[in-house]
Specification:
It is built from four helices and ten strands. It is α+β, with helices and mostly antiparallel strands. The protein has a four-stranded mixed beta sheet with strand order 1-2-4-3, covered by helices on one side. The longest helix has 20 residues. The chain is globular, with a radius of gyration of 16 Å. It is found in: Cytoplasm. Pathway: Amino-acid biosynthesis; L-histidine biosynthesis; L-histidine from 5-phospho-alpha-D-ribose 1-diphosphate: step 6/9. It catalyses: D-erythro-1-(imidazol-4-yl)glycerol 3-phosphate = 3-(imidazol-4-yl)-2-oxopropyl phosphate + H2O. Its EC number is 4.2.1.19. GO terms for molecular function: imidazoleglycerol-phosphate dehydratase activity.
């Protein structure tokens, strides 16, 4: 049996607003070194790495003296680009994944299709959640922005639904962990899958 190709990627992106350097291994053990200068986003990306079994290194700097938005969104863009690059032609993957993850009172569901067709459906967060400050200058609205950027640049169809929750920190973390667990299933290599898991022959 042949050894599968390495599913790794290294991406650098520099603009007037941020500089991002990111490395990942889709077949890792969940080890991570994250420094985006946005502490709560570091926390979410660490959870993503751990629960998706993706080794992830992120070094990011940006104009956080203005707002965390640019650094968070640009890091998510690069993460999506790296995922797409590491997936290669997607031969042998399970393709689909779903997960339901609790964090105390919060419960989130995520479904991932490595479809090649970017799409995000994100629903269920309480009214006004987008305005909550979490961990200093990270706002609830950035959770959706991060999912949008990852899904678009990785070529994923992603549905994230908050089933219930009250604490803003718990909501964001439950959503990221659910996404991570669903992505872990979808990216997994399935020995029963021959070639590309699509009737079109490409994803």
């Amino acid at each position: 049996m042949s050894t599968p190709a390495s599913r790794t990627a290294s991406v650098r992106r520099a603009t007037s607003e941020s500089t991002i350097e990111l490395e990942l291994d889709l077949d890792g053990t969940g080890q991570s070194t994250i420094d985006t200068t946005v502490p709560f986003f570091d926390h979410l990306l660490t959870a993503f790495a751990k629960h998706s079994l993706t080794d992830l290194t992120v070094r990011a700097t940006g104009d956080t003296h203005i707002d965390a938005h640019h650094t968070v969104e640009d890091t998510a863009i690069v993460l999506g680009q790296a995922i797409r690059q590491a997936l290669g032609d997607k031969a042998g993957i399970s393709r689909y994944g779903d997960a339901l993850v609790p964090l105390d009172e919060a419960l989130a569901q995520a479904v991932v299709d490595i479809s090649g067709r970017p799409y995000l459906v994100h629903s269920g967060e309480p009214e006004g959640y987008e305005f909550h400050l979490i961990g200093g200058h990270f706002t609830g609205s950035l959770v959706r922005h991060a999912f949008e950027a990852i899904a678009f640049h990785a070529g994923l169809t992603v549905h994230v639904t908050l089933v219930g929750g009250r604490d803003p920190h718990h909501i964001a973390e439950a959503e990221f962990k659910a996404f991570a667990r669903a992505f872990r299933q979808a990216k997994a290599l399935d020995p029963l899958v021959q070639g590309i898991p699509s009737t079109k022959g490409a994803l």
